[in-house]
Amino acid sequence: MKQNDSKKNFIGRAVGYGIGAVGLDLSYGLFYSYLSKYLTDVLLMPAAFLLILTPIARIWDGINDPIMGNIVDSTRMKMGKYRPWIIIGACCNAVILSLMFTNPGITSGSVGMYVYVAVMYVMWGMTNTMADIPYWSMIPSFSANPSERNLVSTIARTFSGIGQGIITIFTPIALVLLGSGANDAEKKVSAQGFSRWAMVCSVLLVVLALVCSLVTKERNIVYSNERFSFKRLFDVVKQNDQLRVFMLFAMISNAGWYLTSGVGAYYFENVEGDLSKQSTFAVFGAVGSFLGLFVIPIMIKKFTRRTIYQFCLIMVAAGYVLMFICGPLLHQMLLLNIAYIIASVGIASMFVNQTVMLADIVDYGEFKTGKRQESTTFAMKGFLQKMAYTIQTIVLFSGLGLSGYNGEVKEQTALASGTISAMTFLVPPVLIIISYIIFTKKYKLYGEFSERVNGYIAERIKKSESQE
């Protein structure tokens, strides 16, 4: 059915859609930014176990994620094909998130604890996939117009940033406020604080997913009647060269940013000596993320999206260099926070660009093969993000293990402190620069060629609408 929404209605739907990203990122942020701290410092689990667990979980994700993408593509329900899974996935993920950060009474170091953590870890990835793939797969269905896609992606990433901001700003505070009290042992306070905060985030995840699904309407839906097969999945990846390029440079750059979020709690508690400083650091980051949302609207008038993306990566790398100088070298927290604004501006606009790029890659796949595979393609986004976090985890736990990090004490050796500082501020810009080189040399969906693809998709939509 042909839809001619006013701009006001379009923005309203986009905002309703964006609200769902807050809940998803509450779960995402708590899991990937604080799970390592919870496991090493509260459950006292060795880094070696986590180095083994993470790659195994990613192998399963490589099987599970594309299957979920195909299930979404083939779904035909009254609410559509995306929104039912957003609700189902959010509810399941909320339960697992709460269980992940709650010790049901198993003795630390026992076989039972290792099994429990492993099962919850894998289950979190599966349930997150159930909600994440259909959520981000909806973007191409909003519009074929690049400007409108920019708007939807910007709004969604804005709310995504709010979710991340809530986690990074309030988690250090919540762990204390929701703990059992100042007279209890530090580990007990942290354990209860983690459990209760995870439950709060879980409730918000479900509520916001419901709001998103009730407000948002699905448009321009293309259903798939093809049964899932790994051959077809490999064909999608094989035939879409820009998807492969995107997965590579996005995975590397995202790994750099995720490393900072994952190691940040270690840096502020064990190097700077005060975990609460991370909250202030995160506030400055939130300011930078907000400002970063204006980069594309301002620069797009004079520059191509390709140039803007390159500019963003350069800004991120420069911000990291300044953070290393102001933080580990000078220990000037104000200057460190200001430098974080610079990096955050680049990161926020980088993520918005990546979301739009993936929507363009869906169009490119249809342009090249004649078949549209939104959810299967967007399943690769979820998988690359998990692979980025795998890189983060390998670097993080390798560094902690090799440097002799001890989760039972607050003050670490000089080697451990130096390693934590390097992982937080030096490794990320190296990854960003590598990503910049790959993007510049291999990504081609810009300029005249991009206009050809957009024209082709617009004609197909027009033809489809005229037949209805």
Structure, explained:
The chain has about 475 residues and is mainly alpha-helical. The protein has one domain (about 5-215, about 230-465): MFS general substrate transporter like domains (Growth Hormone, Chain: A). It is built from 17 helices and no strands. Helix 1 (about 5-40) packs parallel to helix 3 and helix 12 (about 305-330) packs antiparallel against helix 16. The model is unreliable at about 180-190 (pLDDT under 50).
Oligomeric state: single chain
Q: Rg, please?
A: 22 Å
Annotation field: number of helices: 17
CATH superfamily: MFS general substrate transporter like domains
Residue share in β-strands: under 5%
Q: Which fold name fills CATH's third level, the topology?
A: Growth Hormone, Chain: A
Helix content, binned percent: over 70%
* SS-based class: mainly alpha
Q: Please tell me the overall pLDDT.
A: 85
The total count of strands amounts to 0
Spatial shape: globular
Q: CATH top level?
A: Mainly Alpha
Report the order of strands and helices: HHHHHHHHHHHHHHHHH
Chain-wise SSE layout:
Layout (H helix, E strand, L loop, with lengths): L6 H36 L4 H28 L8 H18 L10 H27 L1 H4 L3 H32 L8 H30 L14 H10 L1 H31 L5 H16 L2 H5 L5 H25 L3 H37 L4 H30 L10 H12 L1 H16 L4 H20 L2
